[in-house]
Design brief:
Elements (H helix, E strand, L loop, with lengths): L9 E2 L5 E2 L5 H14 L5 H18 L9 H13 L4 H20 L26 H9 L6 H16 L3 H5 L6 E2 L4 E5 L5 E5 L2 H11 L2 H6 L16 H12 L1
Antiparallel strand pairs: 1-2, 3-4, 4-5
Helix pairs in contact: 1-2, 3-4, 6-8
Length: 248
Amino acid sequence: MAGKPRTRRIVLDDGEVLAGSAPTPRLVERFLAYIEHERGLSVNTRAAYRRDLADFTAWLGERAAVGLGIADLGDYLATLDRKGLARASIARQAATLRTFYAFLQLEGLIAESPATLIAAGRRDDTIPGTLSPGQVDRLLASPDPRATNGIRDRALLELLYATGCRASEVSHLRVTDVQLVEQFCTCRGKGDKERMVPLGRRAVEALSAWLDGPRRALAGDAPWVLLSSRGNRLSRMRIWEIVRLHAE
């Protein structure tokens, strides 16, 4: 359940003071300003947040975002499911709620975030349907967790499975594109179009083990998430070679 709001208030550039009792649209606008000016997120990513939070605000009606609990947020996501929204879209909405409520907690407007309990479910279509659940588990468990390449390969496989991204998109994924606390990453597809993709718990754990572990010794100035043993970006072809290696 969400905790009792603290007394801290947000002071906007125009001098307006916002407290936890402020209308949700004003809190959303402050959040959008925060991710633009303090987090430096891209225009497309901010637009995705704006759309998701507009849907959430419309669902709230006269209710306030502050004071909701996990059951309320679960009802909202269930409503999206009943409307026929794709599972990937619902997972993205859940990621948006986690980030928004983490911001409210950071600003002291709530003591605890109810959204931290929302699961970031995996997408069913990220591994070809010819693989059974047991085969998927064996594939993801194949890399050696004691070896540098094994830690990297586990991060790669979990990333592909959790996001459904193409090998070329994963190849060009930058460290700054990955938000482990908020459990999402920003992928760039054809035409350099950006989309915000949620990450599941296992993907977050695997990426954290790689980014905070062996990659530090390899990276140098390289911005890429996935690197070879020489510190170079993994190519699309090399990624598929790694996938085939562990699928054998």
